[in-house]
Protein 1
Amino acid sequence: MKLPIVAYGDPILRKKTAEIDEDYPNLKELIDNMFETMYSARGVGLAAPQVGLPIRLFVIDASPFAEDDEDGAGDPSLMDFKKVLINPIIIEETGDKWGFNEGCLSIPDITEEVQRPANIIINYLDEDFEEHEVALSGLAARIVQHEYDHIEGKLFIDKLGPVKKAMLKSKLDAISKGNVRVSYKMRFPFEKKGR
């Protein structure tokens, strides 16, 4: 089932989330719904707060970045990079920061270059509550960092400078009011009813 994606401006996107355990209700169904929602919105990651849940869970599938784009810049190592991360903790971020144009399903039609460290080590539980600790670099690290920010109550626009943020203010206000066209179901915090 496709879930509505929460738009910029909703307070849930600014909450630090809570850990869950194996008894979390309907967890498998939630994970399946999050993947379906992410795929239908053409995303590569989706965090629980983006579907209105203040829990430490996100799903990713980076396979769209495995194929070459017009610059021939695809990363074949991402072909099978599909994961469920429950209660993740970034243990270490290292390497030079590098820029990449990021977007977010909760902030449609806005992409900006964001600087992030090149490498991370992350500890997490998978959907079977088995523990993993992995080192990631490049786009894999970036996608995980972006989704990890969501469960910490942060958004990619928080990493922009004050001038860039000021330039985006009217667009962000429009998104929060529902004045944006998207091809997927969204929930807007300040949408006027009866339009």
Protein 2
Amino acid sequence: MSQEDSSTMRALQVLENSSSSVRLQAALAVGTDPDPRYIDKLVERCAVEPEFYVREMLTWALTRHPSAMTVPKLIDALRSERAQARSQALHTLSKIGSRRAWPAITRALLTDTDDEVARSAWRAAVVLVPEGEERELAGVLATQLGRGERETQLSLSRALIALGEVIMPTLRAAMTLADPRARQHAIATERLFRDPDAGFAFAVEEAKRIVALGPAGQEG
């Protein structure tokens, strides 16, 4: 084994060290001096790495490698049964920003039963969506209105708002849904779109009031 190969092997082994700070430094080193031989291990570690800040460094390291080599590997990871593998692959694809990944952002991922996967898919989708397909994406995202707790709902609202004015017909339609949680979330998103400085908490409280008042409240 050459000295270069030996150095590469050591770097890959250190990514599995029991110390999170050592793993962090290893990911930093791999990203600082990219080598295609690192890609498989970086993707593999993203799926199992328990520490958030180490995962972020792994993602950064992947962005330092050629997208033509990383994107296909990350797309493969989207089919993993492990939720973290799907979530982190989506997160990394959003950071890379290659439109080649767009066809892999499926409806199944956008509606994934795991909240973290779905949230990562929403963020990736609004980054990667091709021009002219925003309205269709908004329609899929709108099926998730009312889902989860405050953090998940805020993520969805931010994703919708990032699509711009095109979301308004979709939101107006959602304001007539039978599900009060979805209706409330749609109203809160519309309020936040119109007044970003108001904050999501205020928009939610205002939406609750409007839903409680019924059609008369929506007129106001």
Protein 3
Amino acid sequence: MASVRYNSRPGPARPDAGIVKVSTWDVGTPQRQRRTVEALGEAWGGRDRPLPGLLSYSVLTGEDGKTLLHYSQWSGEEAYQEFARSGRDARDAEIDRAVPGIERTGPHTYELYRSGLRGGGAGEPGCVVIVDVEFAGPDPARQRDWVDAVFEAMESDPEPVPGGIAAHFHVGTAGDRVLNYAEWESAQAHIDALAGDGEGIGTPTPQWKRVQSYPGMTGGGVHRYTPALSLVPASRRTGRDGTKCV
């Protein structure tokens, strides 16, 4: 049976994740948001069969009171597709019986490209900020160059903002989007950082201006979330003697 850990988070930088799947659900109200998290825990935690290739599955609640972010790490695309064929619909149906009318978007597929610490990287994150960036057409080299430009801007910033813990940049396997899973001490720390002199996070340096006006960017968004639960598959847990539980 999967282990359900409430108010916990994934480890975005784990090296054994071949791909990451990210999707969002719109459930409408804070009450339905809470009930959906409970239903997810029940649907996933109540199954004994392990899912080969699933490394972690986490759910985060949006501060808007109606959205949920789903972040799952897999050994590879084949493992996810096998789950989609054999187990996803049954779980979704169980959740839909508890909370009818969920609007689902995605999933999008990513690979982790670069991770880095911000502000010393200390403490447990009280807030996760998801930054989505979309580009005009597939270009894997452009995705990575933009991320590299962000790291250059962060490393050269004369006044780094406090409250940031870590940034985990994922590039879309379709070649046209980037996702930053950014961990912050609190939502207020992120709000204060946005209130600075620059356009967004960071001071108005040439490096940050290059990031913000990068050619080919067509859209995106910034949303704050709170970790709600993480599920550790049965095949990944170990007993006290070190043997795997199945």
Protein 4
Amino acid sequence: MKRVVNLCRFISLLFIALAAFQVSAQAKYVEGVDYMKVAGIPEMNQPVVREFFSYNCPHCYRQDALITSAVAKLKAELGDKLAFERTPVAGGRPAWQLSQEAYYLAKKFHVTEQAHGNLFKRIHEGDGAFKRQEELSQFFVEQGLSKAEIDKALASVDNKLAIADYDTQAQLSGIRGVPSLLVNGKYLVSNKQRSPEELADLLAYLSTLK
């Protein structure tokens, strides 16, 4: 009988220890501290990390390497299971709207990897913000694209629809500024200083939430 009692006590302690471990693991990241749950936006694919940003934003420029590195670490772990998307934000500012069109062009002509860093450098280290579509067109000619195709894309309905979609996503997302990271459409990463490894770990955790 004594052995049975001791065994029951051992099992009880084991369950308590496991429960404590689970609580500790769950408490690694705390809602309201490390992230916020927002109404957000519907995402077609999950897990997905979406960055809201602008090429005109100095903070986005400074944070780009951190975010890029963290996402690269996460993709190395999850591979094709993880989608990484960007949404350029304008907030009604003409120069920022031109940067939205810049992102649209980069995506349309499949030169995002090449143009992304160059756009930041052009604005923050070179000639400053784009003021006219002609400047935008010239930039992409320098990236090796055809001016005729660029101008046709800028004048297209697809361009207008893309800009409208970016604006809608930004309005519904619940973000308060840029850059902002939204995971699975409803988990907004809090603005805290983190290393690429720490950010990647937080994003990995949030990517498991539904």
